[in-house]
Amino acid sequence: MSDFSGAAGPDLAPPPYRVLFSVGDPSGDVHAARVAAELKRRRSDIYLFGFGGPRMASAGVVLSHDNRGCSAIGVLESLRLVPRMHRILAALRQILHTTPPDLVVLVDYGVFNLRLAVTAKSVGVPVLYYIPPGCWARDMLRVTERVARWTDHVATPFPWSAGLLTRAGAHATFVGHPLLDGVESQPSREEARHRVGLGGDERGLAILPGSRGHEIRHILPLMLRAAALARGQRPELVPLVSHAPGSDRVPLQRAASKLLPEARFVESTADLLRASDVGLVKSGTITLEAALAGLPMVVTYAASPVAALQWHLHAARRVKYIAIPNILADREVVPERYGAQGRPPDLAREVLALYDDPARREAVRSDYAGLAAQLGQPGASRAVADLVEAMLDQAQRARTAGNARSRQASVADPWRR
């Protein structure tokens, strides 16, 4: 395993700044990697390490623990991860106690990261939380109060979240949404169509089921069946299935071979979203990414019977919308169909209703443009890197002042030596 403590060899001085990252899911890996790359670009006197994913590693973060397979939704799926997550949390806490870093940066992953924040604060390590849990909601007061209590600064992608956090006593900054950082580099529709192999008369039907194991098991078959029904009526629709880079394609291919052999697999999400005319998208951050790419979509979700029962008993009455564009607008900008209203015929019907109505698709895109205006400007990664540097400088000044006071006290009272 790589050395992640930041300790130097016998002939090397330790780097002056050590930053511990804790990032538990794939989307957080992307956002944290952009911050890490920005920090590495700016300065050489910084050592980034901790819990994260492959994109963070590529950006120069030394991983103590890999987060692949650490993301789950629902009680049953989460319980399977408990032993592993307990070990990772214990190891990170040990680092905080024995070789505390200069700063802890947490990204999303609230249940785990809030526990780590408590430990960091208890040993005097400052905490920056980027994308705090529940920040997309406008009424997550209980979580907001916990975040405010156990952090030194919060960088949030939604303006109302910054207001809630400030009122709860946090130092909070609205940095804009990190997905905006990638909008300017998106390919043109023509480039994307060429890359995914669409011919002149073919039209793309994007299928984005997610990359977690339970999503491949439960959401992908649902989407493939719906796509097969839609393709049966509109043969020009080509199903383009999202395949996360580095993930195992075998389960996807196995499902497609049985349900939709015509499916093509695409690794680049940007190409997939820009090339397609309509999409079937699972709920979550990807719905916002699809909206920023201008893709009209139908949003759905599916889970194991146990997780579905949990949703029905505890969340269904409290959650108004599951698609982020609908949450932002507080109305149904895109159709979301799940549970008893999200069976394959229902999804196929909604897909075709969007596909067959150009005016409706343009209305959806117009709504997207209005929503994007709520998310600030590109540059979230740079803004978070600014906060990291400011907090490191503040910690350094505090440490220098403390050392100076200690020296003065020692001179004034030689018996303290």
Care to give the gist of this entry?
The chain contains 16 helices and twelve strands.
Written account of the structure:
The protein has 417 residues and is α/β, with parallel strands linked by helices. The chain has 2 domains: 196 residues, Glycogen Phosphorylase B (Rossmann fold, 3-Layer(aba) Sandwich); 186 residues, Glycogen Phosphorylase B (Rossmann fold). The chain is 50% helix and 15% strand. The protein has 16 helices and 12 strands. It has a 7-stranded parallel beta sheet, sandwiched between helices. Strands 10-9-8-11-12 form a 5-stranded parallel beta sheet, sandwiched between helices. α1 links the parallel β1 and β2. α8 crosses α14. 46% of the residues are buried.
Question: Descriptors for this entry?
Answer:
Rossmann fold, alpha/beta, 15% strand, 5-stranded parallel sheet
Please state the overall shape, judged from the principal axes of the Cα atoms. elongated
In round numbers, the mean pLDDT is 88
N- to C-terminal separation? 41 Å
The CATH topology of the largest domain turns out to be Rossmann fold
SSE string, helices as H and strands as E: EHEHEHEHEHEHEHEHEHEHEHEHHHHH
| Alpha plus pi helix count | 16
State the fourth-level CATH superfamily of the largest domain.
Answer: Glycogen Phosphorylase B
CATH class of the largest domain: Alpha Beta
Total domain modules: 2
SS class? alpha/beta
Strand content: 5-15%
Number of strands: 12
